[in-house]
Amino acid sequence: MSNIPETGRTQRVQIRLIVIQVLVFSLLLTLGGRLWYLQIRNGREYTDEAKSNHVQQVVQPAVRGSILDARGVPLADNETRLVVSASRTELLKMDDDGKGVLTRLADVLGMKPKDVFDKIRLCDAKTAQPCWNGSPYQPIPVTDEATTQQALQIRERAEDFPGITAEPTAVRRYVAPGKANTAQVLGYLSPVTDEEITKAKDTDSPYLRSDQVGRSGLERTYDKELRGKAGVTRYEVDNLGRVIGQAKDDKAEPGSSVVTSIDARVQAVAEYELNEAMKTARKSFDKNTNQNYKADSGAVVVMEAKTGRVVAMASNPDYDPNAWVGGISGKDYARMTSKKSNYPLLNRAIQGQAAPGSIFKVVSTAASVNAGYSFDGHYTCGSSYTAEGHTYKNFESQSHGPITLGQALEVSCDTVFYALGYQQWQKDGGLQPKKNTKDWFFKTAHQFGLGKETGIDLPNEVTGRVPDRRWKKDFWKANKDTWCEQAKKWPKKKDFNTVLAHENCLEGMKLHAYDSINYSIGQGDTLVTPIQMATIYAAISNGGTLYDPTVGKAIISPDGKNVRMVEPHSHGKLPASAKTLKQMEGALAGVATRGTAAWRFGGWPQDKIPMHAKTGTAEVYGKQTTSWFATYTKDYSIVMTISQGGTGSGASGPAVRNIYDALYGLDDSGKQDLKKALLPTPQKSLPKIQHDGTIDAPTIKPYDPNSQKTPEEQTLAAVLGRRD
Amino acid sequence: MAGFSVSRYAPDRGVWGRLTARDSVVRRLDWPMLGSAIALSLIGAALVYSATRGRDSLNHGDPYYFLLRHALNTGIGFALMVGTIWLGHRTLRGAVPVLYGLSVLLVLAVLTPLGATVNGAHAWIIIGGGFSLQPSEFTKITIILVMAMILAARVDAGDQLYPDHRTVAKALGLALLPMVIVMGMPDLGSVMVMAVIVLGVLLASGASNRWVFGLLGAGAAGAVAVWQLGLLDDYQIARFAAFANPALDPAGVGYNTNQARIAIGSGGLTGTGLFQGTQTTGQFVPEQQTDFVFTVAGEELGFLGAGLILVLLGVVLWRACRIARETTELYGTIVAAGIIAWFAFQAFENIGMTLGIMPVAGLPLPFVSYGGSSMFAVWVAIGLLQSIRVQRPMSA
């Protein structure tokens, strides 16, 4: 018999079998735990990963809405271009990764094969432009400038070009109807950035990789409306990218159209006249600097006085917005952003700020009346004014004796406002200000809407500046270190800058007499934008309402059924009684008939179309004077400025007169021909919308600048030297 | 009284009667184990079908190509099990030297021009007609059988309490021979399974602790040596690197594990439903009908379904452990322990690699994965286990 125990098992084997069993089950438990961890604890995460694994999107870009002028003339629309695209997924299935096809394609398109390869490679950290940063499942555009012949070649020889398509595609076009470029107002588009995609991910209008985004102007303000909704087809794909099913299909919805208050014809006139005025200024001699005026930049705004709607807005220098279409070239971009070109991307009507000079005097007048001075009182207009040991000269040292505030506006007498500004400064305690300073001149300026944005529906408007006590203090805090460092050289060095730095270091936080005196005539640290001044003069015209200027007038859905008006909004009332306004109006009419602007309005039918104007010639340290011209009728207000352009009436006068002539259909003798009038009253109605949603657009003729002129008048316009 | 046959003394009965008699073989089979194995095979068939019905490049345009073959393999495997039970493991004991010799010849044949390479492992013999043979699967069985025969011979004869050193050395030598050949294929996964089988067999044989720990040490040293001497192919090193850091090259060597984890993870509690898995339908996981079949269960059947597979495997192993403990002869114990070590490790390695806790190795999941050789081998193993249970004395 064997010595094996009855159980058939020795102790050692039995224990080891139990060890094996424990080991086996701990392995199974490990698997179960890990399975729970992956599926239950982290299941969500893997579900998301699985989704992105197998769903791919193909995007059909929405056709961007048009930007139209007030009568329906397209300022920005889309043209159909032949876009040749390559499908990466198709190409990569080929043995040579599509190299052969692309080389043949390059040959047909007259491109270098390398350029074609580069265009369809995918962007990553190591790949510089050109490269494709959209979805690899998206057909990648190789060119949007294919000719019909090239497109036909590609289509007819489809077997030679697998994965290549040549399709007509809508591409942005800036039409410039009648040469109304409107560049800065329209803005431009560029491809969406990663950052923007991430930011807009959870909003109600997320971006797609292929989106173009409005970067400035109306394209940016109304981007959401114009953009529409891209069509997205979501395909389920397998591991090789082969489509195994269609998950979801959202049809593309074209963007809405934006009807603006811009009238392309008036815009063309404004652009032309601004440019002409600047060209003329550059031919004029500046006695102060002993050289011709530089006229480096300028802007003009034509606004409906009763609504704040912008009829024309021009900024010079400008650029061709079509340069941005299809991706701007490095050369163009460098040119547009260089100092040499003087930054044509800036819309100087809302982004250019300068001291207003005498067109500011309407603010000073209202402030004086609010401070208790009588409008019809008598104020000495001497050739100079002396305060605190400084002498301040009247413009060209003219003297008019005792005059009313109205007359002071009319003849633009500086010394009257010097005295008023100085008196108010003294009343507020001078260099030791009282606790509750009245600050009538600053307060009134703020009430006129200066020192903050007008709220126009264009991006990146600047605020200008009211140099009040608070600003002085803030400015001193920000700069005292620099000033005091520079002031250490004093009194050894006594040049202008060192002396100024010394003074500023010690007393820059205080409001000085000279600050108040200079400010009273819109000089010193005062800054305004043309749009602010247009808004103010429009308000004087309409009885005192400051409107938020608007360019957009209505948003019309692609089917034409849904029209949303952009209604005028007011951001305040002028701080002046109806009586004061009326008195100021009288004075401003006097400027146009008897005063500083009268020589520019010879023959103007003042009885039919009362004209009001104010000229301004602002001094800028180290530069030539800024020309300002602010005007209004009962329907329009027009403000023009030319940097380093000379006097208000001298440089800007003729241009503004010509714009009015075009609006009202006047010739230079003042005879009105309503047939020639572009817009004798503001355009109230919207363009006609057809049943299918298309919008009627009238044809447009380019502006003929000689239509209102006789040769003699042209020579007259060259006469210079009137005081301002 | 070894070797007696119950039926010899039983009265004559009809076939049905014989099958259902209280002392019949059918009644004495381990039904929980058999049921679990059949359930695993059925689940496997569904998973294999789900994974392959859309793989046109593999299934020759016939969505049922793999399903039919899988069914055929399972049927043959089942028949092999029945045959094994009918012959009995004791009868087979006599044939072990022949079987062992055959299996060594077969693995050697792989190294001749008859052999073929599949997925980097030169481990196959193409038979023709779309069938191929992976001899290393059968070698797992013959290693168990030959070691059991040698180690148990003198113990079961009552000469010794435990196998002596000479016997152990001889058994190890016989196991090592086919392992070296398989290593040369190279089929590292199978070698790992065989090493674990050897360990399990030694443990169950009652061999001295010195052998057990010596073997563990030798295994560790061997692994280090293989690594240091650069005996591994590049693809094997890459698999280990990808295991250590799955983020490394997710489109390359890390692709399998990454996609496997996404598929399983996305299943959640209840899964997407059979044939509804997007990752499976989209064929994101390579080798999904064979080595990565568990990912189909993970995605389409979820935690409940994948967990069920673990439970069924657990039942098979639990019953096998019982059989190992309850049989009276060491030979049966060793065979059972070898099979337990084999199934447990192979299942752990296979599922573990899809879950990202083991490096990738080309091993099928017993009963579930598509693959004839593996299917035959595991069913023969089940036959052996059943035979051991049937032939132990009735526990009254």
UniProtKB/TrEMBL annotation, chain B:
Residue ranges annotated as transmembrane are 31-52, 64-87, 99-126, 138-155, 175-204, 211-230, 301-318, 330-348, 368-385
Name its pathway.
Answer: Cell wall biogenesis; peptidoglycan biosynthesis
Task: Give the signal peptide as a residue range, or say none if absent.
Answer: none
Q: Which reaction(s) does the protein catalyse, per the Swiss-Prot or TrEMBL entry? A: [GlcNAc-(1->4)-Mur2Ac(oyl-L-Ala-gamma-D-Glu-L-Lys-D-Ala-D-Ala)](n)-di-trans,octa-cis-undecaprenyl diphosphate + beta-D-GlcNAc-(1->4)-Mur2Ac(oyl-L-Ala-gamma-D-Glu-L-Lys-D-Ala-D-Ala)-di-trans,octa-cis-undecaprenyl diphosphate = [GlcNAc-(1->4)-Mur2Ac(oyl-L-Ala-gamma-D-Glu-L-Lys-D-Ala-D-Ala)](n+1)-di-trans,octa-cis-undecaprenyl diphosphate + di-trans,octa-cis-undecaprenyl diphosphate + H(+)
Topology relative to the lipid bilayer, per the entry, is:
Multi-pass membrane protein
UniProt-listed Enzyme Commission number(s):
2.4.99.28
Highest taxon of source: Bacteria
Localized where? Membrane
Tell me the protein's name: peptidoglycan glycosyltransferase
